[in-house]
Amino acid sequence: MSVSKVSEKNTWQEVLETVKALDPSKLEIIKATLPIVKEHGEAITKHFYKRMFKQHPELLNIFNQTHQITGHQPKALANAVYGAAANIEDFTQIMPVLERIGEKHRSLQIKPEHYPIVGENLLAAIKEVLGDAATPEIIDAWADAYEVISDVFIRMEDRMYKTTETKPGGWAGFRDFVVDKKVKESDVITSFYLKPKDGKQIANFIPGQYITVKLDSENEKFTHLRQYSLSDRPGLDYYRISVKREDHKDGEIPAGIVSSNLHAHVNEGDIIQITAPAGDFYLDLDSELPLVLISGGVGLTPMMCMLNTTAKEKPDRKIYFIHAAVNSKLHAFKNHVNDLTEDNKNVRSFVVYEKPTEEDIEMKSYDKVGFINLEWLQEILSTKDADFYFCGPEPFMRVVNKSLKQWGIPEERIHYEFFGSFGSLD
């Protein structure tokens, strides 16, 4: 972990210590009503979003509407509300989660004025979903609880904004970047090399972090914000994002508005607005243990950043780079990883194809057919005394996480990024 991150955590510890405590009588009400709020959490948050967007349609410029359709966002908020309330006596117990939410909020430019709007509509949603069960005393207690929780985030995010804006190359809000290069990496993934329009310095970041891209289009009523992992190492004069085109899926999930627009309409020389790098999923730059990077699909983007950084800055550190894809047509950065592996004796790379093409079979361009499993990991890794990082679709991550735990890898050496605040892969 970097020194700056340790410093930030110490600062946030000070913030938490200044937060006012909830009145004991209201704390008892919160504890007593936690089970019912948990039981009806998703119903409350789904109603909350409908209510809030009706009252404040301008907030549609911030929230990801695809996540509303899939149910990811209501579920994430329900988990966050319950988790924060359950730990309201001691927020230090959930510091990593608070950091994760705060980083998301800072990247999306959530500001103090948004919290009263959320609170008003969340309390109303609780009352409207629970009906007579939500007595005035219960609503009053939850109103005070929300004030305490929102105070935590406002204070923490204020520190985050100030740190981001004052660091070398940092900035406030959205900044104009020029698409210096647009490179097709596979049939569905394209990289965008972004350089600051003003030609000034850009902020450093930790491998694994992301930026938020803002899309304003004449064909869209609202602004769309999306977060993309940085896929090349820090210290360069550009940021690189590698975006998967999200096509229409069966059911009600539409094609990705931002990813489709980037692929089809954003070209070299165009301007993209982004926020400064953020995120709590990042590489421990100080560790000397072997590094195991495991990715599935477009989950390889933060892994590429970690790989490039470690190979450059710590060429003596042993690296295992494992990537799973459907086949070579959907496999991005394959040549780059092969070249890096050939040039560095401490890097070993492995490829898993679910459905290899005839050409893949003929060329023997993979190491395993099917899926990653524990038995295979034990075959290819010379040690389990290593740091493990993985990213990919949720089912993929569940399998990897379960395999590592079955192998006895300590929790502190297992790192992944999970959508949804208080969610987990267990």
From TrEMBL:
It comes from the Bacteria. The record marks Y49 as: Involved in heme-bound ligand stabilization and O-O bond activation. The keyword Metal-binding applies. InterPro entries: Cbr1-like_FAD-bd_dom, FAD-bd_FR_type, FNR_nucleotide-bd, Globin, Globin-like_sf, Globin/Proto, Hmp, OxRdtase_FAD/NAD-bd. Keywords: Detoxification, FAD, Flavoprotein, Heme, Iron, Metal-binding, NAD, NADP, Oxidoreductase, Oxygen transport, Transport. FAD binds at Y210, R226, Q227, Y228, S229, F418, F419, G420, S421. Residues 21-158 form the Globin domain. Its EC number is 1.14.12.17. NADP(+) binds at G297, V298, G299, L300, T301, P302. Heme b binds at H105. HAMAP family: Hmp (MF_01252). Is involved in NO detoxification in an aerobic process, termed nitric oxide dioxygenase (NOD) reaction that utilizes O(2) and NAD(P)H to convert NO to nitrate, which protects the bacterium from various noxious nitrogen compounds. Therefore, plays a central role in the inducible response to nitrosative stress. This is Flavohemoprotein. It comes from Neobacillus pocheonensis.
